[in-house]
Amino acid sequence: MKKVKAYKDLSIEELKALKEELELRFDEVKAKRLNLDMSRGKPSAAQLDLAMGMMDVLNSEASLMCEEGVDCRNYGVLDGIREAKQLLADMMEVPKDNIVIFGNSTLNIMYDTIARSMTHGVMGSTPWCKLDKVKFLCPVPGYDRHFAITEHFGIEMINVPMTLDGPDMDMVEALVSSDDSIKGIWCVPKYSNPQGITYSDRTVQRFARLKPAAKDFRIFWDNAYGIHHLYEEKQDWLPEILMQCKMEGNPDMVYKFTSTSKVSFPGSGLAAMAASKANLVAIREQMKIQTIGHDKVNQLRHARFYGDIHGMVEHMKKHADILRPKFETVLSVLERELGGLEIGSWLEPRGGYFISFDALEGCAKAIVAKAKEAGLIMTGAGATFPYGKDPKDSNIRIAPSYPTPEELAVAADIFVLSVKLVSIDKILKEKTA
Amino acid sequence: MKKVKAYKDLSIEELKALKEELELRFDEVKAKRLNLDMSRGKPSAAQLDLAMGMMDVLNSEASLMCEEGVDCRNYGVLDGIREAKQLLADMMEVPKDNIVIFGNSTLNIMYDTIARSMTHGVMGSTPWCKLDKVKFLCPVPGYDRHFAITEHFGIEMINVPMTLDGPDMDMVEALVSSDDSIKGIWCVPKYSNPQGITYSDRTVQRFARLKPAAKDFRIFWDNAYGIHHLYEEKQDWLPEILMQCKMEGNPDMVYKFTSTSKVSFPGSGLAAMAASKANLVAIREQMKIQTIGHDKVNQLRHARFYGDIHGMVEHMKKHADILRPKFETVLSVLERELGGLEIGSWLEPRGGYFISFDALEGCAKAIVAKAKEAGLIMTGAGATFPYGKDPKDSNIRIAPSYPTPEELAVAADIFVLSVKLVSIDKILKEKTA
After folding, report:
1. Does any domain span residue A84?
2. Which one of B146, B270, B297, B387 would you mutate to disrupt binding with A, by most A Cβ within 10 Å of its Cβ?
């Protein structure tokens, strides 16, 4: 067992000596003028190569007729061709009649869902733009682009702390049942962004049992990482929310989203929404005004490439083989360099795209800035909170997917160096105050 | 010269005899239980085949790096890759800095543009949803899906009659300059839907010189058929509206839209908007909340397949070769069967996708219903007017693109038979009243 002393237990002299030593090492790295990026959950080139076969599936000799006999090259089919619906329905673990395929991005679907609620309400409710106040619950830390949507529409965001079982459900229940201006909650229920937490069975059940004061309250269930495991034998399981809500007599309370952005190609994949039939009837009413239909050729390309959900699951194992060592590299550097120092904590996710790091209070911004000095771009501190404001200035999202393994080892070293230096400054300041 | 007598000049007996004869012919056609569709502007399979080479342009061996060095398979590039922007900018006759590429559909862009104006206003103006009244001018006959968008948002639509030079500009000028609740006008300026009229140079100039009472008034310039000529040597020309507006000191007054839906594949093409830089700055502010980016792989596929605008122009000649005989078939049947009868009028478009037919007042619905009896689906009568209400019940849109030439000859025959029968009924009724 490694013998380490927590930084807070070091003397001022020890801290100063350590700082000097670490600064030398930091300057060495800085001198390399590196350019590394751990800021966004982007797949690496090696992962994208996995789906290149998709480029050959449809060639000029291929028939572009889909199962229902429609020429995918022409207009028609509002909400997705049958074989693509089957594939995405299986991916979402729902019947295919409960899904609608949209364009290339769940972000776009979620934005449009809120935009529609603003101008037309939800299944006949008052348009949100006509209300004095609309609020959303935001489990934190969470996904910055979710929060950006609600902020864009002037929706007030209320932080709800995450626990290891998901959002604090006592708080969610109390708020949702008492305040009818609360219209929704952002959830990434599996391998959450950024913590990699999967909501517990009990949390999902409590979601399904919510008794919202607002009839037009919806759970925005962004299951972005539903099949994005890192370990074949050590994966997380999540109860299917549509069925849970149906069982609890709340069939219309949830919108579920997923995409193949991190299965095939980000920006050139398929995105879908799953919901009750009543929700989908209302949504199609608006959808048919907005579009004649989305890209069926790309739907067909995906369906033919993966064949079925088993093909997709097998494909995801290849992603895992590329991602797993990257996560393990970062986690082992964190453990080796920061374990026992009591200047930060993190979780070990079993899937998804992120590692969430909690620094000492008041240190996150400084750590991200420090890392940048040495050429490492991290997600901006605060980004994981509504309005970009982390009340403790503590959370940092680490995205290990994009850099090569070699880059990643260097990047992780820069990160821990930055954490150490900033933490020492804070502790020194406290000790000398 | 054919000697024909106008129906109105026939005696009651002549009309009754003619009706009997036509009814026999109609019953013969009806007995064939045909299933023909002239309802929508869908390209035919032969036209779609023209672009099948696009399926081979990107294969698993191809580099998917675009000119600016971005991997098109990954996230990034909000508003379009450079080579696709160049292609669509040339198609739209504007500088490439004045365009943004969106997804697969201009309808979707136009919908989103109105939705954004509803919730966020236009370049800082009051959101339209906060106003008591918002109105749009609708040149009629026009495109049903335009009208559906404004109707969906509760925007009051005001009919403006079309002339052979475009919308009645006296009326447009008077309304736009006096009523600040008028926020926009729908235009299909070239080979208009459904009449195939191209706005005159003077009309475009008058548009550019508008002095709107509302600062957030925008011309929605849907140049859907900009390069969709039927005749190489007999094409229409249209002044470029962005430049005209700039020259007149109204640079921000217009949004221009186009897509490759009827160039490559409907639903799997590219759609773009052109506007002043100030407009695009405001639009990108919202766009970056809604999406990380659209399908760059498809953008690259289009750019590589067409090469440049010349390649696209050459491609459009092949479309014309397929469409021209279809238009000529319908027009020759109309002329042969209805010329001189004074029971309908039509124009001979030089491009676009439609022929517009004006029946005797009060006859359009009945003609469409009659055609349906014999298995011919036409666009619903009234569809070319806001709220589906043609005040004269006169206009019928004919879409000759989708059927084969053989089907089209039969379809045209059914149509003229239906026109004759319904018109005789009307005239008989008037004569015997």
Report:
1. yes
2. B297
Give me the residue from B51, B73, B149 closest to A265, CB to CB.
Answer: B73
Contact B4, B317 (CB under 8 A): no
Total domain count for chain B?
2
User: pLDDT tens across A285-330, in order?
Assistant: 999 999 999 999 999 999 999 999 999 999 999 999 999 999 999 9
> Cβ of A127: how many Cβ atoms within 10 Å?
18
Supply the pTM of this predicted model: 0.96
Question: CB–CB of B123/B218 below 8 Å?
Answer: no
Residue type, B369: A
Range of the domain at A146: 64-307
CATH code of the domain containing A136: 3.40.640.10
313-372 of A, contacting B, C-beta below 8 A: none
Residue A181 in any domain: the answer is yes
Note whether A34 contacts B: Cβ–Cβ < 8 A: no
Cβ contacts of A103 on chain B, cutoff 8 Å: 103-104, 294-295
Contact B286 A152 (CB under 8 A): yes
User: Among A285, A307, A329, which residue terminates a domain?
Assistant: A307
Strands in A254-259's sheet, in edge-to-edge order, are A99-101, A271-274, A254-259, A218-222, A182-187, A135-140, A156-163, A166-167
| Any domain includes A58 | no
pLDDT digits 0-9 by tens, A110-157: 999 999 999 999 999 999 999 999 999 999 999 999 999 999 999 999
Segment B325-380, tens digit of pLDDT: 999 999 999 999 999 999 999 999 999 999 999 999 999 999 999 999 999 999 99
